[in-house]
Amino acid sequence: MRFAADRVDGRGSAEDQRRRRGDRVVASIDALVDQLSAMRGAAMKAGQALSTLEFPGLDEGQSAHLQRRLAELRDDVPPVGWKQMRKLLTKEWGAEPERVLARIDPEPVAAASIGQVYRGLTHDGVDVAIKIQYPGIAEVVESDMRNLTALLPLLRQFRPDLDVKDLLSELRERIAEECDYELEAASHRRLARYWQDHPFILVPGVETALARRRVLVTEWVDGIGFEEVIRQPEAVRDRYIEIVYRFYYGTASALDLACGDPHPGNYLLCADGRVAFVDFGMMRRLPRNYLHREAAVARAVREKDAEALVNALSGLGYLPGERSEWDGEALLDRLSRGSAWRRSEEPVRLDPNHGRRSRASRGETPTDHGGQRPRRDQTTSDQGPRRPQLRLPPEALLLRRMQGLLYLTALKARASARWGPLHRELLEGAEPVGELGTAHASWRAAHRR
Fold this sequence. Notes:
The chain is an alpha+beta fold. The chain has helices spanning 14-37, 43-51, 60-75, 82-93, 97-100, 137-146, 152-158, 164-178, 181-194, 226-229, 234-255, 290-302, 306-316, 328-338, 352-357, 397-413, 419-428, 434-447; strands at 103-104, 110-111, 115-121, 127-133, 201-202, 215-219, 257-259, 267-269, 275-277, 283-285, 348-349, 380-381, 384-385, 416-417.
């Protein structure tokens, strides 16, 4: 099956050729999602990671079709009955749940990607959330991860620039780690310690004695979810989204940890104005000061320094080949057009229309063709020289996903902020912005963060 951008024969009108190319793209998308669907346990996580990548070869309609199909993977998670979940919980704890806890409600309060969440009460009177992994899901995911290589040909059709093999290897590692709730408990404890006593960020504590490989128990948090928050007044939405940005970027900056699943279902607005964050299964340890090195990209764009931009992107591994092969001015133009909202000194209110106007601004880094000088040894096509796209380093996959999901969340919340100063504070350590920035700076000073 050939990618739609391949050459077509000369038969038929230009319109016929475009239609045939479009049909091949849709067929390739359906084949990709059908293969993911067959993988069951791994499908959701693989689909989530793919859903925030840019696919420059797709037009708007094809991209929308891909997102709709990937959404099917996220939504297709049938609930598991309490009898099965109780059996697994008894095995993990070595005792019946009713003996370990003072109370546990048999009806799940939420579904996670590979498990279900229940509410309970410890004998010490602590209200807790119990996340229990679906029986057998870890084995299913492990098997599916071995089969992810079957996706290589299809993914290469959509993104020939990506080192797909390395990216799938990265995805396998991260998803395998997510199946180990003891690893998640360790990440959760680290974040809870770091953000302890913060004025507007809450990470609930972990009941370490009850943590197992397939069971995670944390303090229960009451709050309203994203769908209710976005019906609140603008001031509430704006503050909420700024806190979300501050938490995930702050974690990446201070702890060199990228959270690969900043899904809106993973943070709650509490009655006291704090935002509570949960679900730290898909985490990526970043190279030391990685976010600050990425800040050099934004700084070069802001200062219109083409040479610094090429150096920053090359140092991070985004530019295949030699630096001299890349046209810094073209890269500068590309990033300047795609991320103007990020540099705005004045408040910018995002909305879904903004998202359609600037699809390419989901990440800090360009992922399309622009920027490389044509070389003599490059092949040509009907459209002129074929320029390889920028590569996506495997270590940046979850960071790109984090940035993409945060942007999409801000769009849906129709949030407003002075995005330029906010990003400079979060990525470059610039002066605190607004009331939240001042409160955060005071907390850091008081707690020597």
